[in-house]
Structure formats: C-alpha cells, structure tokens
Amino acid sequence: MDIAKGPDATEEQLTLRMLFVNFGAIHTSSMTFMHAFYYLASDETYMKLLRSEVDEVVEQYGWTKDALDMMVIVDSFLKECQRLHAPGLAGLLRRAAQDFTFSNGITIPRGTIVGASILETHLDSSVYTNPLEFDPLRYVKLSTSSQNPSETQFGSAEPSKKKYDITAVSLDSLIFGYGRHACPGRFFAAAELKLMMAYLVRHYDVKLENGVKERPRDLTFGLNVMPNPFARAMFRKRR
C-alpha cells in the first residue's frame, strides 16, 4: 500500500488491492476447514482423536496462543487435509523472465506462465509413505522420527519441531507457496483454522446426514478444487 504511486495510489485502486488480498484469505481458509470438517463428519475416530488432545490442552492452557501451539495433532490433521485437498491443482505460478530450454529440449518462451503440479507433488511416494492414504498423524510421526528418510527432502531451515508444522513451507508442501513469495498470512490462517477446529470438536458432535460414512467427493473445475457444497451434515451440541 505504501509503495503505490501515481494511478495505483487512488482510493479505488487501493481498495481493489485490499479486496484482492481479503478474497485470497477468506475462501482458502474456509475451504480448508470444510475439507477437514468432512473427515470429522464421516469418521468418528478422527473426532475422538482431536477431541482428546483439545480437551487436555484447553484444560491446562485455556484458550490461548500457547494452547494452539500445543495442539500438534490438530495441526497435523489440518496439514494432511491440505496435502490431499489443495485449493488448486497448480502452484508457484510464475512468468518466465527469459527463454529457457530444459535438458530434454523443451523450451519455455519468455512471458510464459509456468507452475508446479500441487497434486503430483503432494502424492510423491518418494517423500510420503502411502501418499494416497489420509493419515491424521502423518506430520506428528514425521516430526518425532529421528530416522525419517524424507527429512532432508523437505528443505526447511526451521527447527526440527517446527519443520512439519502447518505453516512450514518446502518444495514438498506447496499449499502456502515457497521462498520469498510464501503466503505472509499463513500464521494467522493456521491459528484461525486450529481455533475453529478446536472449538468445534470441544463443543459439538457432527455427522453426515442419513448416516453417510463416505467423505463427500471434491468438485474440480479448471485448476480449482473445492469441497462438495451439496453435502448435508448434522450438529449436536455436547452436554
């Protein structure tokens, strides 16, 4: 906002910038939460797993930032949802600054928009064990494993305990981008998602309508992926 000059500094243009940023923050967080919610509603074992951690942590730390930091299972659960249900099929979109020819002879002309396949990256069996399987404890296991063969492949300079957090970025986890253009709002988004998930599992029981046990299938249009908007769920407040 501060560096806007000339026509970019008008009230209209500054407002459009803010709307663009706000839009990018709203639908991505809400869709991630719905992906996670569908897992909870379709399998009660996930609810029990998260609720056990949330109840224990909240009883000890209350509703605080420290409490959210201690919810490592909730963190892993959400990150695993992101791994299998990214908001789009392509990430790290960039415009080629100059012509580039790969070793196989394929040339990318200057000005071409290129990107990485998020789905193929997140389903790489050389990085993730049983990549097609939803494992809510996947990142808890990775963070506690001292002999994990993929540790060096995540390329993170963060402390080992934070290496697999939902906010950690790497070439094997592209939800929040990578490098200097990684999403700056990911820390707020992570806190928001964990807080909503913790409140849900602590205060409500949920299930899909009519006893459905199969997680609703995602909808894909173009490069976009979204949680099924037609599924129906039931809530019951805990006593």
TrEMBL record:
One of its GO terms (molecular function) is iron ion binding. Belongs to the cytochrome P450 family. Gene3D superfamilies: Cytochrome P450. InterPro entries: Cyt_P450, Cyt_P450_CS, Cyt_P450_E_grp-IV, Cyt_P450_sf. This is Cytochrome P450. It comes from Panaeolus cyanescens. SUPFAM superfamilies: Cytochrome P450. Its cofactor is heme. Heme binds at C183. The keyword Nucleotidyltransferase does not apply. Keywords: Heme, Iron, Membrane, Metal-binding, Monooxygenase, Oxidoreductase, Transmembrane, Transmembrane helix. PROSITE patterns: CYTOCHROME_P450 (PS00086). Pfam families: p450.
